[in-house]
Design goal:
The chain has 124 residues and is an alpha+beta fold. The chain has one domain: Beta Barrel (Thrombin, subunit H), CATH 2.40.10. Helix content is 19%, strand content 43%. The protein has 2 helices and 7 strands. It has helices spanning 4-19, 69-76; strands spanning 22-27, 37-51, 57-68, 87-90, 93-97, 106-108, 115-122. The chain has a 6-stranded antiparallel barrel. Strand 2 (37-51) and strand 3 (57-68) form a beta hairpin.
């Protein structure tokens, strides 16, 4: 039987990439090639909140790029996993993938791992 939820997640990712996305370029840290991977991303944000030992609460907001995972797996291999320090170019601005509150610098945007959500901060 077909997995309707997975099909729906794939359809939604395709619709976002086609109608609500902009072109960006992904660069891997340590990759000396000046050529990055061009992809379509939908912009979003995530707010993280954590408390330190003294009880102070810190809020941290990231600019997120949501993109279909299939293209990254095709370009970088099936074992591709975004790394802290990779960066994304968007409209002449540079955004670095960052870990927030000890989390990874990305998460999957759905339970079927159809789309990545890259957590970034602007650095240039």
């Amino acid at each position: 039987m077909a997995d309707l939820l997975k099909q729906g997640a794939e359809w939604l990712a395709g619709q976002l990439a086609s109608h609500a996305a902009q072109q960006c370029v992904y660069h891997q840290v340590g990759n000396q090639s000046a050529i990055g991977y061009e992809f379509s991303a939908t912009l979003s944000e995530t707010e993280f909140e954590f408390q330190d030992e003294a009880g102070y609460v810190t809020r941290f907001q990231t600019r997120d790029f949501v993109a279909p995972a299939a293209g990254f797996r095709t370009r970088f291999g099936p074992a591709f996993e975004p790394q802290d320090g990779d960066w994304i170019e968007d409209g002449g601005k540079k955004y670095e993938l960052v870990k927030a509150n000890g989390n990874q610098c990305f998460r999957f945007n759905d339970s079927h791992r159809v789309s990545y959500r890259f957590h970034t901060k602007r650095i240039a």
